[in-house]
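Could someone model magnesium ion with this protein?
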Amino acid sequence: MQAPATRKSTIIRPATTDVIAEAGRRLRDGKLVAFPTETVYGLGADATNGKAVARIYAAKGRPAFNPLIVHVADALDAQAVGVFDGPLANLAAAFWPGPLTIVTSRSDACEVSELATAGLETVAIRVPANDTARRIIRAAGRPIVAPSANRSGHVSATTAAHVVADLGDADAFVVDGGQTTIGIESTIVALAGDQKTELRLLRSGAITAEELSKASGLVVRDIADATDDVTPTAPGQLTSHYAPQARVRLNATYAEPGEALLAFGEPLQPATADFRNLSERGDLLEAAANLFLHLRELDATGAAAIAVMPIPETGLGIAINDRLRRAAAPRPAKSAS
Ligand code: TXA
Ligand code: MG
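Reply:
Sure, complex below.
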């Protein structure tokens, strides 16, 4: 069998000490590095660098900004990103390092880009069991977001060759650590219920509901069986979306007095003091990285409406417009959450 052709932009290297150091440097520089975990290969980027995170969405061709999992080297580093107490601390102690992703509140010190969490208040975190993965994260010295290293909609990659076949033109550095051992993505859980006394299984994986229940002392319910309305955002059924207080008006060709303006490229003559530019250069990568931050900042001004200039419906612009349309969509009657 012939090895898949490595396109010029993607580099594949065995997981030696030097290569791991190089992977860390590249991540710090905002570049993409694909690496093995015990579940599937991940396409990694510096979680604190919005532009690097935007590169992931572009490379994967994700139609929308699904929130990403933040990978850290140990449970202590996880506490710098999310809040772990009570049952969640027990789960972390029982299953990390390992194929469990825990969704929790962002910690006060959390530096993860809002693009990575899709503007949610929560963050998904895991400590992979794969030694190469943890060494790369340590070498980078910061939390790393890593979705499965496949094109959106394809099956996940369990070998470095799969990664190259799917993402060969993604300009990624692929660290080859052989075939992954588990091969399906991590189990994802979040606290749920009025008193946060239940566990919701958001995605099934190698760690079973029984094991989760035993370690946490909580009742575990599968998202598919949960009928309450306090269900957190679930993979593949992203109901929660970033909705600012302000009304959002899309494809604005003028800004009304009192409206805040979210510009893209050459700004409209701002009749408003409250103004942000997603990218003066009209760069979609930069715009994606700024999107949630700018929406939040404009919302904080207390303006009744945010006028958003048109964003081209190409490349990352598709994902940006998807999020903007969700933000602009008529709001359901106020729900409990
Ligand atoms: O095994 C894995 O988890 C692999 C390896 C690379 O670590 N990663 C992975 O990532 O499967 P990805 O991006 O393909 O899947 C992440 C899932 C998405 O379905 C997303 O909806 C969910 O995690 N997710 C992320 N943040 C979330 C949050 N705050 N609340 C609920 N779900 C979240
Ligand atoms: Mg995936």
